[in-house]
Amino acid sequence: MDGDFPLWLRAQHLLNFILIGMLIRSGIEMLSSLPRLWWRKDCAPGTEWLKFTKRELPKEEGVYTSLMDEKSLHPLLSLPGRENIGLGRHWHGLSVMFWVLNGLVYIILLFATGLWQRIVPTSWDVIPQAWESLKMYLSFEVPDISHFEPYDALQMLGYTFVIFILAPFQMLTGVAMSPAIRSRFPWYVKMWGGHQGARSLHFIGLVIFTGFIVMHVSLVFLVHRDRNIVNMVFGGGEVTTARAAQALVVMVAVIVAVIVFWIALSYWSLADRVRAQKFTAGVTEIGRKIFLNHLRPLGAKKKAYTDKDISEFHWTNGLPPTQEESQLWVEARDNDWEGLTITLRDDLNDVEKTLTVEDLKKLPRHSYVATHTCMQGWSATSRWTGVRLTDLMEVLGPRPEGARYLLTESYGLAQKMYDNRPREPFYAAIDLETMAEEESILAYERNDHDIEDYLGAPARLRVESNHGYKHVKWVSRVMWVRDYADYGDGRGGTREDSALQAFNGRI
Predict the structure, then answer these.
(1) Mean model confidence pLDDT for the chain
(2) What fold is seen in the domain 298-498?
(3) How many CB atoms lie under 10 A from the CB of residue 422?
(4) Do 273 and 32 contact (CB within 8 A), yes or no?
(5) Res 2: pLDDT
(6) What proportions of the chain, in percent to the nearest 5, are helix, strand and coil?
(7) Is 448 left (phi over 0), alpha (psi -120 to 50) or beta?
(8) Beta bridge partners of 405
(9) How confident is the model at residue 151 (pLDDT cuts 50, 70, 90)?
(10) Other beta carbons less than 10 A from residue 323's beta carbon
């Protein structure tokens, strides 16, 4: 029997509960990777408005990497837990996709069936009525059941706010943190206060959502409990002691089952992280293909960011090569890059050429202002100058037949390997469409001076439509390849191999 609360409504309510839990838990995992929040676009140490760590950061640039700030959370709390930002991001994206889909179906059915009139106020009388209800709750009194038809005025305002204001707000601030959106619609991201403004607002929205859920669940059991649980489980009908008891058992069992499911997702992910990455990244790639892959940077048309937006501070993720890691790079650094070369290679036909830093600077220059974002959450805005990848690879001649990706390697080593084997050179692959973007360059200057050692000197990759893990520093080699699956662990880059990020870094 559907009664006043049809089966579709109850089913979507349950699905929403499951997905919201996944969103919150994966969001906690993402926040734990960089447990600090800023309003400033440069994320300078000591300027956080909120932090969840006691660690104090040094003021000097380039001595403290963002991975050093990562916290390890228990799988009971976060999804999946234990310093797995890559999987946390994938689970968050997967949950968002299904949560938005579930919400769209809910809104369509709500208006198609006329049930929207229960939630959306149609008269200003709801304001004084809601005020009276609020005063009752604050006085620890319970409004009479006659106030609920089926919701009282305060509930109506709360549901309207969450469904039609807070949920869209979370979606809008969430997409504002995508580098693909920022490079194509920079004005939109700037409207939210840049990447850090969007990130902070998104967190505030999470807190409000969590508070609403706690209050909502509490009131279900504190205010006319028997009526509430009968409606939620059976859809309405007569409220008897026996029926209420039956509904309570079903509801508690379902809540326990959902909590077990949330925790099981964490342990399933940690039991085989590569398997979890293949599943979650595979599902979320569907969303990237539909909504993001066709978005290309504005390039020279971009007017939203200028030199006035340049940040005072720039974080790093990874430290310059040491003598043990790359003696050649260290000796060249100490000798004004004398003797250091960057190799351009056609790996399909075993053809290569080498360029010195001076050779690189003789190629056509390209300069722009862009915001760099790390998948952990920090950001910094700089002017980058270098040579477009399309111009760079023309030095080798026409693109070889069968080349489908551009792979870049570093003089530096990975910070850690997935299976704890000896560290290997850092690398990343990008597809040809991304390579051809106007803001995909091999940069040798930042803010009109040579790139700092800790940020990738003498040359680093810039791929502005992707997060920073694609931006290889201390570049040693750039080459055409047929398939990135033939290199490293076959997932398209060091951070994809070791941190289980997605090959597509556009969100």
Answers:
(1) 93
(2) Sulfite Oxidase; Chain A, domain 2 (3.90.420)
(3) 7
(4) no
(5) 46
(6) 50, 15, 35
(7) left
(8) 431, 481
(9) confident
(10) 9
Structure tokens given for 22: 């996944």
CA angle 206, 211, 212 (to 5 degrees): 100
Q: Looking at the chain, which residues constitute the CATH 1.20.950 domain(s)?
A: 7-34+85-290
Instruction: Please give the Cα distance from 345 to 352 (Å, whole number).
Output: 4
Asked whether the CA dihedral 363, 364, 370, 375 is positive or negative, the reply is: negative
Contact (Cβ atoms closer than 8 angstroms) between residue 232 and residue 10: yes
φ/ψ of 236, rounded to 5, equals: 130, -160
Please choose, from the candidates 445, 463, 424, the residue with its C-alpha nearest in 3D space to the C-alpha of residue 182: 463
Task: Check the CA dihedral 178-183-188-194 and report its sign.
Answer: positive
| Predicted TM-score (pTM) above 0.85 | yes
pLDDT, position 143: 80
Q: Is the pLDDT of residue 251 over 70?
A: yes
* pLDDT tens digits along 191-200: 999 999 999 9
Delimit the CATH 3.90.420.10 region(s) of the chain. 298-498
Q: Which residues pair with 371 in a beta bridge?
A: 381
Tell me the three state secondary structure of residue 493. Answer: strand
Instruction: Name the pLDDT band for 12 (thresholds 50, 70, 90).
Output: very high
Overall CATH class of domain 7-34+85-290: mainly alpha
Measured CA angle at 418 (ends 417, 423), to 5 deg = 10
469, containing H or E segment: none
- Tell me how far apart the alpha carbons of residues 484 and 428 are, in angstroms, rounded to a whole number: 9
What is the pLDDT at residue 396? 96
